[in-house]
Amino acid sequence: MIKNIFIKIKDEEDGAVIVIVAILMVVFLSLLAITLDVGSAYLETGDLQKAADAAVYSAGRLLPVQQTDTAAINGIKDSAINYAELNGYSGLTYDKIVLGNIVNGNYTAIKVTADKSVNMTFARIFGVNTINITRSAKAMLSPKNKMTGLTPIGMLKSDFDAMIQSGNTKHVVLKYGKGGGVNGFFGALDLDGSKGGGASNYSLWIAHGYPGEVTLGDVLLYENGNMVGPTFEGFSERYNSCTHYGATTGGDGCTAEHFDPDCPRVAKVAVYYINSSYTAIVCGFASFVLESQTSDGYITGSFVKTLTYGGSSTGGSAGSSGDFGTYSLMLSE
């Protein structure tokens, strides 16, 4: 009789184990199913973020843009949509592209929001058919704190501030010639910060830009004298290198109204304040579309705001300290 009791208990235990194992198998398979679907959604999220990043970075290269320039704004949005599609996302629309950070009437930042419904496979068993995912990215213009390719001419900060306040940003004198200048200084700078090289380096840098890097706070030496010949030769080579807007077929080429930011006519220059009678301290960088020169050493150009490559940014947004209208593009979200 005792033996029969033990057999009965053992049979009952075997039955309980089978039930427990069955329950655990269901739980395990359910967790596995959910893990696979969540993993799939995670991969989709990564792809969506890449598409958003590509969209803002490509479109951000067209900044800054005036608030009132509808055609240019639509062009920026079209660029974002195109690059999102090239990166596998076709759901980006105008309403999900927002331009912002207005500085002096110009948009200087762009944000896109990308969303997508990911179809579930195993999770459908539990009534979860889709998971909605959303990713966003933002790019903004940031003032330069280092610059390569500078032209060895510049502008006093006080003159730059006066130019901006007056709104007279066209046909600005960037280098003085005969009858101008102060105490033998006509606006030419020795960008490597050391004596030597003189007219030959100066002419080369006028034509092709200084190959080294100039940083905020650097102390630059003046290039004394008018240097009419080197100025004329360097400017002529640079100006005539423009290949945009019909420049090679009798057209105007790049002007302040329409220009390619990478054109040689777009000259990056130092904005500085006087440290002593022979040196200048760099406090920022500005861009001018070169327009003309005279046979006695004058150079003029029109101020433009532009994105440029080379060097690095301050990390701040447009409109912050050190903003002289020449920017890097950086992802901020």
Describe the structure.
- With 333 residues, the chain is an alpha+beta fold.
- It has 2 domains: 2-140; 150-309, no CATH class.
- It is 33% helix and 31% strand.
- The chain has 5 helices and 15 strands.
- The chain has helices spanning 2-60, 70-86, 157-166, 198-208, 228-239, and strands at residues 65-66, 97-103, 106-119, 130-148, 154-156, 172-175, 185-190, 213-215, 219-224, 266-274, 279-293, 299-304, 306-307, 312-313, 326-331.
- Strands 1, 2, 3, 4, 8, 13, 14 and 15 form an 8-stranded mixed beta sheet that branches.
- The longest helix is centred in the N-terminal third of the chain and has 59 residues, at 2-60.
- The model has no long low-confidence stretch (mean pLDDT 86).
| Total discrete domains | 2
Question: What percentage of the residues does DSSP assign to strands (E)?
Answer: 25-35%
Could you give the distance between the termini? 77 Å
| Fraction of helical residues | 25-40%
In DSSP terms (H or I, runs of 4 or more residues), the helix count works out at: 5
Give the biggest beta sheet: 8 strands, mixed
Number of strands: 15
